[in-house]
Every structure is written in C-alpha cells, then in structure tokens.
Task: structure prediction
Amino acid sequence: MDYAEAVAKAPPGWRHFSVHDVARLPSAIRIHELARVPSGEPDDSVVRALFWTLVYHLEPEKWDELTRYEPIHPELIDALPDRVAMAIDVGAGSGRLTQHLVQRSRRTLAVEPAAGLRAMLKRRLPDVEAVAGWAENLPVGDGSSDLTAASGAFGPDPIVLAEMRRVTRPGGVIALINPQQPEWFEASGWSRLTVPPLPLPDHPRWLDEFFGPLDPPRELLMQTVDG
Result:
C-alpha cells in the first residue's frame, strides 16, 4: 500500500495515536517507515499512514485481539500445500497464519519485524523459529522454502515479490492470503480462490470502533515458482 492509499484507508483508531507516538517507535522501524513519507506532510496524515505500524509496535495486543476474531477461512488453509519440508510466514504477526503452517510443514520459520508480536508468537508456538526481518530483505537463503506465505500484509510490490521468489525453491509455492489488489495478481497469472464469508463471531464492540468492520481473510492467491 503506497503512502496516499495508507492515509486514505486508515481505520478510525488512527485518532488514538499522535505524531509523538511515531517518535516512540524503535529507531530502525521509525527510519524505515518514515522513508516513504513525503516531506512536508501534516502530522495527521503521517499518523494515518503509519497506523498499522503504530499498532504492531506500540500496542501489539490490539492486533492480536483483532486476529482472534478475524480467523483465516478454513477453506483457504485447506488449499495450501501440505507435508512440505519448510514453510516461511512473512510478516507473521502473532501467528494467525503460522499456527496453520506448523501443521503443514516439518519446519516453520516466522519472519516478523515487531518484537512484541514475535514474543507472542514464540510463547504460543515455541517450536517455530521466529526472527526479525523485513519482507524486502528476508533473512533466508535462496531456495530455502517449499511454501512461502503471508497473510494480509502485501500487495504487488516488486521488491517483496522478488524476495519471496528468491527464498522459494523451484516448484515451491508462494501463497498470499488477502493480499492488496488481488485483481493484479490474478491478471498476472496467479491462481485465485475466493470463498464466501463465514458469520462473524460475537466480538468486543471496541474492535469495530478501532479497526472498522471486521473482515476475516477469505481470498488466496498462489503461484508456483518456475525452475
């Protein structure tokens, strides 16, 4: 998602933060995120654009609570490759997708830049190797993965997609759950699975007030990496 789109699509909870919270981000995170902010932008626009970053790094428990009530549709999980040697979850958060990859692979690696979310994931999934890293520069060797997956984190970013291809072995699969601009992926030859929404579970009202209407993931885009 580019800067202008992030500003326009910021959920209502952006007002919970201020520009002073941007200064509270870990230094490396702040530098990374501010690099995409045009100079001279008003404070409110900066906060709106960095809403998700602020949640992930400053209040990860809010994201974790959201994922409890927005589970990935089981038909999408069933469509993923099974019994693979190695799976990587890129932008793993607190483990919403990782917990399923563990059941489908002998080894699972979770890549997540937010320390608080990584800590939650490790407490729940102690057998998963959780490492800090950016999708643009994955800390993984070439061709390491049989299944490289991400849930709701990325769109058609050429750098990120190139990294995901780099770490996936020939014949392996890249799987994106609820990516941004799914039509772009489908037009580019990715297979697309869209399933009907499940009934929303009863959930705390504050989730809608902070994040907007709940919308559990129900789209899967997949591509097999050429040899």
Summary: The chain has twelve helices and seven strands. The first strand starts at residue 84 and ends at 90.
